[in-house]
Amino acid sequence: MSAAPTLDTDRLQELSGAFSGTILEPDHDRYDEARRVHNGLIDKRPALIARCRGTADVVDAVVFARQSGLEISVRGGGHSVAGQAVTDGGLMIDLAEMKGIHVDPDARTLRAQGGVTWAELNREAALHGLATTGGVVSTTGIAGLTLGGGLGWLNGVHGLAVDNLLSVELVTAAGEVLTVSESSDPDLFWALRGGGGNFGVATWFEYRLHPLREVFGGLIVHPLDAAHDVLQAFRDLPLPDELWVVAGLVHAPDGSGAKMSALVVCHAGAVEQAERDLEPLLKLGSPVMVEVGPMPYPVVNTFFDEAYPPGALNYWKSTFLGELSDAAIDELVARFAAAGSPMSAIVVERFHGAVCRVGVSETAVPHREPGFNLGIFAEWLDPETTEENIAWARETYAAMEPHRTARRYVNYLSADDVGDAVKDAYGPNYERLLEMKRRYDPDNVFHLNHNIDPATG
Ligand SMILES: Cc1cc2nc3c(=O)[nH]c(=O)nc-3n(C[C@H](O)[C@H](O)[C@H](O)COP(=O)(O)OP(=O)(O)OC[C@H]3O[C@@H](n4cnc5c(N)ncnc54)[C@H](O)[C@@H]3O)c2cc1C
Asked: How far apart are the CA of 217 and the centre of ligand 1, in A?
């Protein structure tokens, strides 16, 4: 939006009067902290930030924004690299203080509010020896991650986050509160399982939990000149459901800029089985570091946290590869050698197991084939190097053109991935999502997201 509408002070007073949370105007001392998101590249200034405490606050904020003609953005955990949780000149509906979590250990379910992070959710579930699929990094919000599909350490054994989602409390564009589940509204529930923030503000999520106390996890690190062998071993490893492996071309965490190849593993089965399943990786070459062993699941979820500090500058590109051919590996290694920032990484995640036993159109997430999800993650601290880091990510993505498919994971899209990128993220499910968007948000009130524009098609 170009010029922000003038705010009606009476209406604003009415909103503030009943609000349980806080309305932050630009002169409020917490405004600057609240408008910041994980990606330091994002520097937007909302006209107002509605720091909600509960569902009633969210309803009032949606109604107020619509009456005032303000663009709406929705912040869950604030982690999206695309930075669409913040609006320039509109109303940011900020769920950062909506932290309620309740576990029902007998039913093995958990309900959590939209501002919860995976670290917070894991902690409560672990009290009861339970867990569910969450993101790889524990500081990511459950809201955006789940609504986009949600891949993580337990994918092979328990599927995506959406495959464990039982219901969502949703505030619609009309300000209605719906509890959406397979039985209450199968169409909308289908759309919420992958369709991102397109359908309303999700205030509560209900998940299925699974018994899981410890996993066998850790890191195997090799020098970069072993990268080809490491990526081949990763590609060829037989994967039981219990095992999830991420291969990364990464920099040493000491800031030296040393380039390495790493395997990060998480095995949710018995220790003996984990040792057996991981043997080909543990026996490979001459690693510079092997740190694997039993650990609580919430710990494995923090492995990457330090590599993604809040406020660092991020620009990501991603796509699924058809196969991880030797030629694709060569290209990735060559491109990583050209990475300028000692924080940038190239990551490959294998899709297999439970994720791939769900049908392509059973949820809005179409990525149900075994395969390789490639992430080109440019990350840096010095704003002077922004252009070169963005160029590196774009050039690396372009270099992978002969190896990639049209498929893309919506949660890894950048703000400039528009048009076909969103269609590619939904593939055969795009048309049904468009139909749902026209039914539930025909005016595109919720458009600051990887948008399914009801006016297209
Ligand atoms: C370091 C890092 C690691 C990541 N790791 C993973 C991973 O392992 N697996 C994975 O699947 N993804 C991962 N992602 C991507 C992540 O899932 C998305 O960025 C996701 O949007 C983050 O959710 P959030 O709530 O923190 O984000 P936000 O920035 O708060 O929200 C992103 C968008 O989601 C929508 N949204 C957020 N909350 C709500 C809500 N309550 N109701 C309706 N819409 C909402 C809005 O459109 C918003 O613009 C990672 C991202 C980062 C930066």
From this structure: 24
Pocket of ligand 1, candidates 71, 75, 116: which has the most ligand atoms within 8 Å of its Cβ, to mutate?
75
CA of 39, closest atom in ligand 1: 53
Per DSSP, the three-state class of 50 is: strand
Q: Are 375 and 349 in contact (CB under 8 A)?
A: yes
> What is the side-by-side order of every strand in the sheet holding 48-51?
22-24, 48-51, 91-94, 72-75
- What's the token pair of residue 225? 């000149």
Nearest CA to ligand 1 atom 17: 145
DSSP character string of 210-268: EE-SEEEEEEEEEEGGGHHHHHHHHHH----TTEEEEEEEEE-TTSS--EEEEEEEEE-
- Mutating to test ligand 1, I would choose from 80, 113, 177, 440 the residue with most ligand atoms within 8 A of its C-beta, which is 80
What is the structure's pLDDT at 289?
94
Enter the pTM of the model.
0.97
Distance 282 CA to ligand 1 centre (A): 33
Q: Per 3-state DSSP, what percentage of the chain is helix, strand, and coil (rounded to 5)? A: 35, 25, 40
- Phi, psi for 75 (deg, rounded to 5): -110, 125
Say if residues 76 and 141 touch (Cβ distance below 8 Å): yes
Asked if 171 contacts 58 with a C-beta cutoff of 8 angstroms, the reply is yes
Residue 108 gets the label, from left (phi > 0), alpha (psi -120 to 50) or beta, of left
pLDDT for 3 beyond 70: no
The Å distance, Cα 118 to ligand 1 centre, comes to: 11
CB 104 within 8 A of CB 58: no
**For ligand 1, which residues put their CB under 6 angstroms from it?**
37-38, 74-81, 84-85, 95, 114, 135-137, 140-141, 143-145, 147-152, 196-197, 201-202, 308, 411, 448-449
Give the pLDDT band of residue 2 (cuts 50, 70, 90): very low
182's tokens: 């397979």
Q: Whose CA is nearest to atom 33 of ligand 1?
A: 144
C-alpha dihedral, 305 to 149 to 314 to 247, nearest 10° = 60
Contact 72, 188 (CB under 8 A): no
Cα–Cα dist 56/84, whole Å: 23
Atom of ligand 1 at shortest range from CA of 140: 26
Backbone angles phi, psi at 291, to 5 degrees: -130, 85
Digit-coded pLDDT (tens) for 179-202: 999 999 999 999 999 999 999 999
> Which ligand 1 atom minimizes the distance to the CA of 144?
23
| Gap from CA of 145 to ligand 1 centroid (Å) | 4
